[in-house]
Every structure is written in structure tokens, then in C-alpha cells.
Amino acid sequence: MIPASPSSHPDQILPQPCHDGPGAAVHRPNLTLAILAMALGSFAIGTSEFAAMGLLPWYAADLGVTEPQAGHVVSAYAVGVVVGAPITTILGAKLPRRRYLAALIGIYGLMNLLAAMLPGYGALVGARFVAGLPHGGFLGVAMLFAADALPRERRAQGVTQIILGLTVANIAGVPLAGVLGQELGWRWGFALPGVLALVSAALIYRLAPRVGADPDARPMRELGALRNGGVLLTLLVGTIGCGGMFAVYAYLSAAMMATTSPPGWALPVLLSLFGVGGTLGSILAARATIRFGAMRAALFLMLFMIATQGFASVAVGDWGLMLVSSFFLGLGSAVFVPLQTRLMDIAGEAQSMAAAMNHAAFNAANALGPWVAGMALTAGWGWSSSGLVAIGFSTAGIVSLGLLALHLRRTGR
Predict the structure, then answer these.
(1) Do 397 and 255 contact (CB within 8 A), yes or no?
(2) Residue 208 and residue 120: Cα distance in Å, rounded?
């Protein structure tokens, strides 16, 4: 097993890929290919998760539901992530990591293909819920794999290697899914990431280090993360603070179509610019985390998110400004990096659970933000209201970050 301790040196923790028992250090090219295979899985996850938001107007119209009702498709996936993160972590504690990761992303691919094929609104909601179950477990362990391959002070770069799969998905995968959805039908937007996820599963199974399960693993030990006050407060920051970003993004394409008359290329570019911002933001956030520490980097990004959400509210009705706002929203989404790094510092022996639950926290935000923004839309507050809802979430996130800082000062961890 790859030990969870982030302080381990990569040459001490990575085993030979030629057998299933502990061994010497793996060759660096094999490690690089394994991480790339995992990044392809995160690319598939990012494409599926965000394409579901970008394609919302199309499947709402096709399935005969309102756009706030179609938002439940997005929320169902997020709830699946929240439910699945602790369950998959506990069930996978004694499994070889190569098989664990390949199985999770393989299931993810199959569920996306079912979402593309099954008829009806209820079937789509159900398939998206089940698709969310492997999300947190896969990304959490993949990020630990990449982070443990670097010295302690550079762990944020390891996290970023996997996150880049998510952010690059918004540059290429989500716009491609959007084009396929517009030209061939929205179901192709789920079929594409489904196929990519299955390819990732095959590559991980072939390329990742072949090591046996940790004989000392205790599945229930991972639950210790949920008794750690610092871990819980960090998860609270992600859940509340990032709800605003999802409140805006979930209805961004619908708002552009409802309030402007954009050219045909504008919607794919809108989605792509969010990915460009997210990719650049992740790189900058990793550097800021290394230089200033996780807490200061998270505070700066939270403040930046408030500014971008205010701009997004003002931009509604002008498709050109909405393109710019999409890029800035993507920049702010990189708050994931310092929060994930903070969790590594304080999770102790429950690294896998903490990493998986961080994804659960962000998907709880993905469920909460669109739900509240949808209520504002249903109440007749208009498309600009999602930005105002978002500012409220981000402000509450800063308060939560302050509570975390007080806890860390009092406990020292």
C-alpha cells in the first residue's frame, strides 16, 4: 500500500509494479503514467459533473421539466458524492489501491452510460445519484497518491496534478460535451465521460503499482477523521464557502440563454473559460499555498470569490460580460487546493477519509448552492439573484474559516 503519511519520501513509499507484495521504489516513468491515468479519470469526472450543469436547459426541455426542477439532476449527483465518500473509503480500506481506483472509476463510467441511455427524468436523477457514489473515494485516494510522491512542502503540487484533470475538463471536455449535446442530443454529454472513465479504469489497472492491501488497515479507523474538530471545520468551510460558486455556475448557461441572444459559439466558450480560469487558478493556488500557507491562501481566494460573484450578478444580460465572469469564477474555484492541503496536515491516520470527504464537502456545496439559487429563481428574483445568493455563501465561508483559525490556534492542529 502507498502509506497515507504526507511526510513520506517518494522513494520510500512507491513499490515495484511487478508483483503484489511490498518492494523497492517504482521507476519514475511508471509513476508518471499512473498519475496521468488517474488524471484522465478526474478529467472524465470533471466533464460529467460540469456538463450536467451546462446541458441543463436541453434536458429540462427534452424531459418536460422546469429549469429549477432540472437542477435536481445536479443536486442528486452531489448528494451521491456526499453519501458515497465515507462508504467507499471504509469499504476500500483493505483493498489494493490499484484495484480500488480502477473499480471506482469503472463504475463511474458505467453509470454515466446508463444516464445517457435510460429514458425519463426519474431515471436520469437516479443514475446521476449512483454515478456520484464513487466520486469522492476515487479522487481522494488519487490525490493522496500524487501528493505522497512529493516532499511534504510540495504536497500542494501533487494535489494539483489530479485537480488539473478536473479543470482541464472544463476547457476541453465540458465544451465538447456541450457541442455534442447541442448537435446530437444532451445524452451524448454523459456518454462521452462514461467512455473516458472506462478507458481510465483500464489504464489504472495496467499502469498503477501492483501492491497488496495494507495488512494493518482498519476500516473504522478512517472514521476518526469525522471526530477531528479541525477536519470537520475545514469541511464546513468547503461546504458553505463554495456553495456560492456552484449557485452561479449551475445556472450560468441558462441565464445567458434566457437574458441575451448570444452567437452559437458563445455557450461552449462560456464553459471553456470557466475551465481556463480553474486551471490557472489551481496552479496559482498551489504556489500561494506553498508560499503563504493554506489558511492565508484560502482566505484570499474566498475574498476573491465574493468579488467575482458580485461581478457575475452585474454581468447578467450582457453575454460578453458573462464570458468574462465565467473566467473569474473559475479562478476562484481553486480554493479547493489550500483546503485539501490543510486536511492533509490535520487528518492524522485518516488521510483517505479526509481526502474523500473534502470532495463530499464540495459536492454538498454543489447541492446546496443550486438548490438555494433555484428557490430564488422560483420566487421570481431574476437571474441576477444567483450572484447575490453566492455572496451570502462566500461570506459565511469566511466566517467558517475564522472559526477554523480559532480552533487551530487553540488546539495547535
Answers:
(1) no
(2) 38
Domain coordinates in residue numbering, the chain: 10-411
C-beta separation of 391 from 309 below 8 A: yes
Helix, strand, coil content of the chain in percent (nearest 5): 80, 0, 20
8 Å CB contact between 267 and 178: yes
CATH 2.40.160.40, domain 10-411, yes or no: no
Q: Give the model confidence (pLDDT) of 383-395 as tens digits.
A: 999 999 999 999 9
* Three cell numbers written together for 363: 459536492
Contacts of 175 (CB under 8 A, 6+ apart): 268, 269, 271, 272, 275
Using an 8 Å Cβ cutoff, are 40 and 203 in contact? yes
Burial of 20 by CB count in 10 Å (0-12 exposed, 13-18 middle, 19+ buried)? middle
Instruction: Determine the Cα–Cα distance for residues 166 and 251; give it in Å rounded to an integer.
Output: 19
The predicted-structure confidence for 228-258, as pLDDT tens digits, reads as follows 788 888 888 988 888 888 889 888 888 998 8
Task: Give pLDDT tens digits for 296-326.
Answer: 999 999 999 999 999 999 999 999 999 999 9
Q: Which residues, in sequence order, are CB contacts of 7 under 8 Å at separation 6+?
A: 152
What contacts 305, CB < 8 A, 6 or more positions away?
Answer: 241, 244, 245, 332, 335, 390, 394, 397
Q: Which three cell numbers stand for residue 368?
A: 446546496
